Amino acid sequence: MGVDTRGAEFGQRRAVMLERLAEVAAAHEEALAGGGPEYRRRHKARGKLTARERIELLLDADTPFLELSPLAGWGNDVTTGASIVTGIGVVEGTECVITANDPTVRGGASNPWTLRKALRADEIAFANRLPVVSLVESGGADLTGQSEIFIPGGALFRDLTRLSAAGIPTVAVVFGNSTAGGAYVPGMSDHVIMVKERAKVFLGGPPLVKVATGEDADDESLGGADMHASVSGLADYFALDEPDALRTARRVVARLGWRKAGPAPRPHPAPPLFDAEDLLGLVPGDLRTPFDPREVIVRVADGSAFDEFKPRYGPSLATCWAEVHGYPVGILANAQGVLFSAESQKAAQFIQLANQRDIPLVFLHNTTGYMVGREYEQGGIIKHGAMMINAVANSRVPHISVLMGASYGAGHYGMCGRAFEPRFLFAWPSAKSAVMGPAQLAGVLSIVARQSAAAKGRPYDEEADAALRAAVERQIEAESLPMFLSGRLYDDGVIDPRDTRTVLGLCLSAVHSAPVEGVRGGFGVFRM
């Protein structure tokens, strides 16, 4: 390919990307720290494992763990990570969605971001037919934010029952408190394991029972592991300690006899011919400057091989057939930012072909949106853009999106942004997503304000206008950045560009746990 990896411009881009990766790494460190050194020491002094240590013992040795939404809550008034760890890992050869409360953060209590993160994990499990293992130690809802948790929080219980009804196994391992609404996590799971003298599962703890009924009760008789294993029957397995509980969970998963429903990948895929390290220097600092997404594809696809569909038609969108880790994929990658009518029509046809052949789609975003202006409006950009969005919305093959650069306006939708329910969506640190770019948005507001003043016959305050534009640009810039968006769960994580092939491979393996089937003639009306 044609990128000059030794040039000064490439070096500058690489340096900027490394700076952004350092910022992301610092945010990840906040999530890893949990409640901080004091609470971690207190937790360990009780002989307990941390959330990530529990996950490590649960997983098969030397297998990857794809953590999801690690920056949930970033930039808000909660601990980064939102007091829960979620992700996809391999247990006894079976890919599972794993959730683990972090009891070092306010006792593992759930805040609104915890809820959103847990619901996203359930969504991924359901869409991809992945068993769920919940590592439970939580004091329930953080009562200071109960108004934002109570009503939507019921969806957690709904999801557990729907997963079970769909034949997707759910396993709960209870290490400590599982109180109030949290008691329904083991209560609604298919398989329940509780740790001796540690697990405490009750709708109301001793203080609440005393206030509500006047009854004196201790933790163990009210909701201990021994009681639930021998009296109530809530516990299916009685574990002597945490390692024993995790060994038992592994045996439960092994006995599921779980099988993938999608086709297997091609064995022994060839690695790319081009170095993934080069991905650090591809994205320009100014996202209005185009870059060739084929440079990304050859560093992600097996053997760097791809077959481009309609390469001379609608050239600002590259549409390619390729394989990633042995899985066939169709790739839609923005080449020059703007989407025109030809690109939109090409995308719609390509998506239909992928659905006919049951091939998952990968969307590589770098778009400023659909083209505007008199010529393009008269040429039908609305109906052609709608055609592309229609195809994306009604496509039934799995979609995976990666935001590399800009992802603005309806172009974000046409490239399968979060609202269009891709199975997974990740962002590079260079990505930005908003209604439009900061300068454009501020300019639009300025023009509207100027026209309003003229209509009322009032003089326009140029100094105030300049201040407003600057303030709006700063706000939109901050709200467009990937860590801001990731903190609100608008993506599943901010990843190192060099890990793109690995992340795509893990996601493709996960989506093939479910059948991979396209829509047959079920698209809406295409305006021609």
Write structural notes for this entry.
The strands form 2 sheets. Strands 1, 2, 3, 4, 5, 6, 7 and 8 form an 8-stranded mixed sheet that branches. The protein has helices at 8-33, 37-45, 51-58, 112-128, 150-165, 184-187, 206-213, 219-223, 225-232, 242-254, 294-297, 341-356, 374-378, 381-394, 409-414, 438-455, 462-480, 482-487, 500-511, and strands spanning 65-68, 84-91, 94-101, 132-138, 170-179, 191-195, 200-202, 237-239, 306-309, 317-324, 327-334, 337-339, 361-370, 399-408, 424-427, 432-434. The longest helix is centred in the first third of the chain and has 26 residues, at 8-33. Helix 4 (112-128) runs parallel beside helix 5, helix 12 (341-356) runs parallel beside helix 14 and helix 16 runs antiparallel to helix 17 (462-480). The model has no long low-confidence stretch (mean pLDDT 91). 41% of the residues lie in helices and 19% in strands. It is α/β, with parallel strands linked by helices. It has 3 domains: 1-31 and 262-431 and 494-528, 2-enoyl-CoA Hydratase, Chain A, domain 1 (Alpha-Beta Complex), CATH 3.90.226; 34-254, Alpha-Beta Complex (2-enoyl-CoA Hydratase, Chain A, domain 1), CATH 3.90.226; 436-480. The relative contact order is 0.10. It is built from 19 helices and 16 strands. A hairpin with a 2-residue loop joins strand 2 and strand 3 (94-101).
